[in-house]
Amino acid sequence: MTTEAVTLFLALLAVGAEVATATAVVLFVGGRFSPTLRNLGRQAVEAVAPSALSLAAVVAAVCTAGSLYLSEVAEFTPCKLCWYQRYAMYPLVPILGLAAWKGLTRLRPYAFALATIGSMISVYHILVERGIVKESTSCDPTNPCSLIWVKRLGYLTIPTMALSGFLLILTLLAVSWARNRSAGSSDSELARSEVHGHH
Predict the structure, then answer these.
(1) DSSP string, 34-77
(2) Four-CA torsion 171, 118, 69, 81, nearest 10 degrees
(3) Fewer CB within 10 A of the end CB, N or C, for the chain?
(4) Which long-range contacts link 134-140 to residues 24+ away (Cβ below 8 Å)?
(5) pLDDT tens digits for range 98-131
(6) Which residues touch 128 (CB under 8 Å, ≥6 apart)?
């Protein structure tokens, strides 16, 4: 498989992640105004939530594999900001994998924090790439952070793809949390109705 084919595949995965994230945002925001969207949002949470942590682990693993392919096979040298994004992404694979496998929901805040930090670094890197923010002097002049190794579909660069992955992970974590909250509220309602029933 050529580098061209792999980067196109990764770009298409990034577009899929962006569509899924945008859909979740529309359902969440629109659900506050539209009963139909609220209903659709509830159904989506119920459908996705049981496997949300597993899906998030898969997203982190694919992002990790993609970044390793780009540096080890395609030989695109990671810049300093790329490394920072890797530091945020790579630990998500074992953290989310363990959370999904063992049902350790208490690991979610750590995953959420890492994905949030990673997203912010990705946004900063995109701004540097586009020349909106001046490149930091800490960036290596021989391998600048503003250097664009990949650009697919007119806008997808390496940090843009990373951002798409981080945002989808955050969305899946939010879905996992939403289900726990709704399950908790329905349990408390059931308990209240039982108490009233005894009276």
Answers:
(1) -HHHHHHHHHHHHHHGGGHHHHHHHHHHHHHHHHHIIIIIS---
(2) 160
(3) C
(4) 138/80, 139/79, 139/80, 139/81, 140/79, 140/80
(5) 999 998 889 999 999 999 999 999 999 999 999 9
(6) 81, 134, 135, 136, 139, 145, 146
Single-letter code of the amino acid located at 83 = W
Contact 153, 15 (CB under 8 A): yes
Residue 191's SS3 state is helix
Phi first, then psi: give them for residue 61, nearest 5 degrees.
-65, -40
Specify the residue for token string 């530091």.
87
Residue 43, amino acid: Q
14-46 residue pLDDT tens: 999 999 999 999 999 998 899 999 999 999 989
Backbone phi and psi for residue 152, each to the nearest 5 degrees, phi listed first: -120, 150
Whether residue 56 contacts residue 96, with contact meaning beta carbons closer than 8 Å, is answered with yes
- Report which residue type is found at 47: A
> Which tokens sit at 92?
């998500």
Give me the helices (H) in the chain, please.
3-30, 35-48, 52-68, 80-89, 92-102, 108-129, 158-198
Tokens standing for residue 154 = 């007119």
**CA-based torsion, 158, 119, 26, 39: positive or negative:** positive
Handedness of CA 194, 195, 196, 199 (dihedral sign): positive
